[in-house]
Write a structure and sequence with these properties.
With 173 residues, the chain is mainly beta. The protein is built from 1 helix and 13 strands; from the N terminus they run H-E-E-E-E-E-E-E-E-E-E-E-E-E.
């Protein structure tokens, strides 16, 4: 008897979770792969649209003034599970879609990645803004390295010697 009541309580919780999940409003979550980088480096940017079976791609037009945006594909993470206990069937659906991008900053400084947005069922849904610090490379003297090998041809598993020479004076332009 105790086992049956535990199963009934568990089934009730699952059904409530399914109903709650079905009623969840669409939302956007976003994340960036690094918060500090040098100008010229790229960073991974992920935008996940949740609680919608077939979401549209997010609008990233607000990023374009400060970033070069390249799509790295997208992936559906929709999940469905069915639970049958004593002839009662319950189903849980979790909808999620991840869009991957590669961002390359166009300038140095403290940059804000504007919140991604999408129009879903006539409503504008947005994620959050994220901040990153982009550093310009430090100015350096000009160095012209000289690289030499002791052989003109090298075969696999054959040893050879490489010499690197950095001159004492920089070459003037």
């Amino acid at each position: 008897m105790r086992h049956a009541s535990v199963v009934a309580i568990g089934l009730t919780l699952v059904l409530l979770a399914v109903r709650a999940n079905a009623a969840d409003a669409p939302e956007i979550a976003n994340e960036v792969g690094a918060t500090e980088l040098y100008i010229g480096e790229s960073v991974d940017y992920f935008v996940e649209i949740r609680n919608l079976k077939n979401p549209p791609a997010p609008d990233l037009s607000a990023l374009r003034p400060d970033f070069e945006v390249v799509s790295n594909g997208d992936e559906s993470r929709n999940q469905s599970s069915t639970l049958i206990v004593n002839g009662r069937v319950s189903q849980q659906n979790v909808f999620s879609h991840v869009f991957r991008y590669r961002l390359t900053p166009k300038r140095a400084g403290h940059l804000v990645i504007p919140a991604p947005s999408a129009t879903i069922e006539g409503n504008q849904v947005s994620g959050t803004s994220l901040a990153i610090d982009v550093q310009a490379p430090e100015e350096q003297d000009l160095v012209v390295p000289e690289i030499k090998t002791d052989r003109r041809k090298v075969y696999p598993a054959q040893p050879f010697e490489v010499r690197l020479r950095i001159p004492d004076t920089a070459v003037a332009e």
